[in-house]
Amino acid sequence: MSTVKVDKKILKLLDRFQAEILLKYGVKLDKKEIVEKAIEWALAKEEFIKEVLLGKKGKDRMLDLLEKPIDWGIEDSSINIDKHLYGE
Q1: Over the stretch 44-63, which tens digit does the pLDDT of each residue have?
Q2: Is 62 in contact with 51 (CB distance < 8 Å)?
Q3: CA distance from start to end of the chain
Q4: Distances from the Cα of 42 to the Cαs of 47, 48, 61, 85, in angstroms?
Q5: Residues 6 or more apart from 60 whose CB is under 8 A from it?
Q6: Average pLDDT, the chain
Q7: In whole angstroms, how far apart are CA 71 and each of 65, 66, 75, 84?
Q8: Contact 30, 37 (CB under 8 A)
């Protein structure tokens, strides 16, 4: 077990959060449990973000979509697109 020092402002926020959990849900958690669960949640969220945005390959999915565009079966040219966007 180790000790982590935090700013008084953070401690006040933690106290308020602890009280809110008790009032809303009737569950009494100590600060250690709250901090542990918050860290676990943050790490799980980070892993989720990495998997969704970067995929398992570690490559940005948006770049992947730009490199391999999907054919929608619509034939058009930039001339027609300009006409629709800017008028004649």
Answers
A1: 887 777 777 666 555 666 77
A2: no
A3: 73
A4: 9, 10, 22, 44
A5: 53, 54
A6: 82
A7: 11, 12, 10, 20
A8: no
| 44/27 Cα distance (integer angstroms) | 23
The C-alpha atoms of residue 33 and residue 52 are separated, in whole angstroms, by 28
Are 15 and 6 contacting, i.e. CB atoms less than 8 angstroms apart?
no
Give the integer Cα–Cα distance in Å for 53 and 47: 10
Residue 10 banded pLDDT, cuts 50, 70, 90? very high
Phi, psi of 29 (to 5 degrees): -115, 145
- How many residues are given for the chain? 88
Per-residue pLDDT, averaged over 50-79, amounts to 69
pTM beyond 0.70: the answer is no
